[in-house]
Each structure stands twice: as structure tokens, then as C-alpha cells.
Design goal:
242 residues; alpha/beta; 7-stranded mixed β-sheet
């Protein structure tokens, strides 16, 4: 496990517009509309499940998708970095869709990742899709990371885990009303642990009412559903299955 020394705290009063400020195991965090997590005490930006080059992976198997997912994902990540000026960026696993994705990156996308590492501390947490981490790109590769009383890892451990921040499950919230149905990527947390939404353009999502989330939370969690410019808190009772 690697441990980061936290820089000066971030002032929550200046949190980006639309973000939802909350606490996680005693740490101040902001759930951002992009799906990125801001850890205030460490000035750290966390994004999970970019699944870079998923489009080209599908194309190799004959399922053609527009080949712009990596470019779009990295563009949105660059916008988050520009908005928050983080001391560190953590890629919380499954940054690449498969073990040859790094080799298929376009030169401009490789340059964007190198530029990111040159401007801030870049930490690659390994996931199940990219267990070896990056081969030629700069940054620090770790299995998990401890910061501000939190443990950052790709896949949630079984049972309640206070302070855990994980990805892997690609949570989505579904809400129905008299005006129709809305399904959005979301954060899901009970204040003790948090599962982040997938950041990748083609990553998709799993309904938080799915059995994969059962047993992760010690009490009923809430979701921070992602909107175009705002994160909306949604209570557990308002959520429905697919």
C-alpha cells in the first residue's frame, strides 16, 4: 500500500458549481457532476473505470463503435484537472479496457497522459482489466492507496469497509415518477464507504439495486446521481430496479 502526505486542505466554500459536498468516514469530499471524486484534505481528484480503448477492443471482435471514446474520456478528465488544479490525480483501476489498450492509444492520447503526469502526481491503481498497470506511461502504480483516513482501491472488499473508496461496479441510479423514468450514473455511499461511477465514455452502468451491491453498506445508502451540471442526492427508497 502506498501513502500520500496530504497538502493544505481545500476550501469547501469554493467547491465547483454543481458538486455535492459530503463527508466520508470523517473526510470532506465533493461528488462532482463529471463522476470524479474530490478529496479535500489531499487536493486529490479520483476517477475510476476509464476503460480507455474499449471502442477499439470491440472493433477487433467485429463490433464497430465510433472510435472516439478515449479522446472524449481524456478530454473530460483534462477539463476536471483544469477546474480543480489537483495535487494528485488517482486513476482508480480499469483505466485501460484490456492489456493491449495502451499499445493502441493514438499519439495525441498518449501525449495527453504524459502531459498530465508532468503537471501533477499521477497514481495508477490497478484493476481487473489492467492488473499490470501501464507499461510505458509515467506515474506511480499501486494496488491501493491510503489518504486522509480513506483507502482507495479498485474493487470493493466484501462486507462493510469504513473509509473505502472503490470503483469496479459502475453504479447507476434509476428513479421513476409520474413524469417518466430517469437512469443516471451515480456515486453510492452510506457515509462510511463510497463506490464511484465509471468515468469512461463507453463504460456503462449497473443498477445500485443489483445484488452485486448487497452487503456493502452498513445502513441504507444514498446516491449522488450525475446530471449535466449538478449532482442530485437521491434516497434509497426512491430508487427502483431495472
Amino acid at each position: 500500500m502506498s501513502t500520500l502526505v496530504a497538502p493544505a486542505p481545500y476550501d469547501l466554500a469554493h467547491s465547483p458549481c454543481g458538486g455535492l459536498a459530503t463527508t466520508l468516514a470523517g473526510a470532506d469530499v465533493i461528488l462532482r457532476p463529471s463522476g470524479a471524486l474530490w478529496i479535500a484534505a489531499a487536493r486529490m481528484l479520483v476517477v475510476a473505470d476509464l476503460h480507455l480503448e474499449k471502442g477499439s477492443s470491440y472493433a477487433m471482435r467485429g463490433q464497430l463503435l465510433p472510435p472516439y471514446d478515449t479522446r472524449d474520456t481524456l478530454r473530460r478528465l483534462a477539463a476536471e484537472v483544469a477546474a480543480s488544479a489537483p495535487a494528485a490525480v488517482v486513476l482508480l483501476g480499469d483505466t485501460f479496457h484490456d492489456r493491449t489498450s495502451e499499445e493502441r492509444l493514438a499519439e495525441d492520447d498518449t501525449a495527453a497522459l504524459r502531459d498530465l503526469a508532468a503537471r501533477t502526481r499521477l497514481v495508477w491503481v490497478v484493476g481487473n482489466h489492467d492488473a499490470d498497470g501501464p507499461r510505458a506511461l509515467p506515474g506511480e502504480t499501486v494496488d491501493e492507496l491510503a489518504v486522509a483516513g480513506l483507502i482507495l482501491r479498485h474493487e470493493p472488499m466484501a462486507g462493510p469497509q469504513r473509509g473505502e473508496v472503490a470503483g469496479h461496479l459502475h453504479p447507476c441510479a434509476k428513479v421513476t415518477s409520474t413524469r417518466g423514468m430517469v437512469r443516471r450514473r451515480c456515486f453510492v455511499t452510506d457515509g462510511d464507504r463510497l463506490v464511484t461511477p465509471a468515468f469512461g465514455a463507453y463504460a456503462g452502468g449497473l443498477n445500485v439495486r443489483d445484488a452485486a451491491f448487497a452487503g456493502l453498506f452498513s445502513r441504507a445508502p444514498f446516491c449522488g446521481a450525475l446530471g449535466a451540471d449538478r449532482v442530485r442526492a437521491v434516497g434509497w427508497r426512491s430508487l427502483v430496479s431495472d
